[in-house]
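Example 144, ligand heme C.
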Amino acid sequence: MRYFKQALKISALGLLLATGQALAHGNVTPQSVDTKDLEKLGDEWLETNPYRDHPQHDLAVKIGASAYNQNCAACHGLEAISGGMTPDLRELEVGEFGDEWYKERVVNGAVRDGRVYMPRMGDVLSQEALWAIRTWLETVAVEQ
Ligand code: HEC
């Protein structure tokens, strides 16, 4: 019993440290996302999600789910269920208005007073990968 409690304490501490670090420095190592089978989108950022009404919608969902787990879940939570430290991305508005805000955040990140709350994900992930993530997010979206 004692050993068990000790182990619990240690793992809780580990978790705390890990989240703390990610939040403090935005220090998340980006994982590459294989988007070669998705339609290429070019260098200019689009304003709306091109994969929403697209023949490759389902492929985008699949790629987006795994890209999310590797690049966003550490901060925004597994299955996009936030633990409360970061916005819950299931609550992003579905459709064009949500797209606009999504794009703004993933391209620019969130930096205030020199602190990186969220890194500029657009610098490390392709536009294809980021719209695929948005496509997946819409499949788990909840009404506010
Ligand atoms: C290092 C932690 C971290 C990582 C990694 C991260 N985010 Fe964030 N994200 C945040 C924080 C913190 C905020 C709130 C920013 C603020 O306070 O303005 C945020 C805000 C957002 C918002 C705006 C949500 C809203 O309701 O305003 C979107 C969209 C978003 N993140 C998408 C993503 C996506 C997609 C990824 C992965 C590609 C990602 N984030 C990776 C920490 C992170």
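Summary: The mean pLDDT is 86.
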